[in-house]
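Fill-in record for 5-formyltetrahydrofolate cyclo-ligase.
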Amino acid sequence: MPEFAEEAEVTADAKRAVRVAVLARRRASTADQRATAAARVQAELVALVRRLRPRLVAAYVPVGTEPGGPDLPGVLAGALPAGARLLLPVLRDDLDLDWGAWTGPENLVAAGRGMREPAGPRLGMTAVAGAELVVVPAVAVDRRGLRLGRGGGSYDRALVRVPADTLTVVPLHDGELVDRLPAAPHDRAVRAVVTPTDGLRTLNGKPGVVPHTSAGRTGGQ
């Protein structure tokens, strides 16, 4: 087996091991613990949105034990200035992401991989490029900003379309910001995370990229 193939296999195995461990820990948490964590994460993101006043935000609908709670899109939409829009991902057959506009919880439909997505018109894969704030799901993130997803590669492809200076933020549970994750060359770094205890934290030595939020725990790495 060529050396590069062996390295790729080792990386995939290492990622799988971390993913299994983190998801097991999430499942072991109680509903009350998840609800408390979601409220804190939402408060941090709302404070950030109200400070940035973006005209376009891209986010997602958390499912199961994902941080932020299933009502996260509605909470974010309620914090946006008048006329601003919230985009949500639409999973394509090739596992890439299209995007649709949030128009309320009643217009969300079940989709592949447990996702819930907007039922309205598709806006194209490049719609995310215009967002001023992108809220990204992950299983874990390291202090370089590299994220571990579910393994489908959807957000690896979507983030390539997001300009490097766009603020990308990952909601996490406590303990899911780690020193270092196994990474592949195509992995794209995010710029900040939100955790219930530490709030909004910037990554990769860039303490100035996230404005201070009124939730009160913003800081660098």
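KEY FINDING: The chain has one domain: 3-202.
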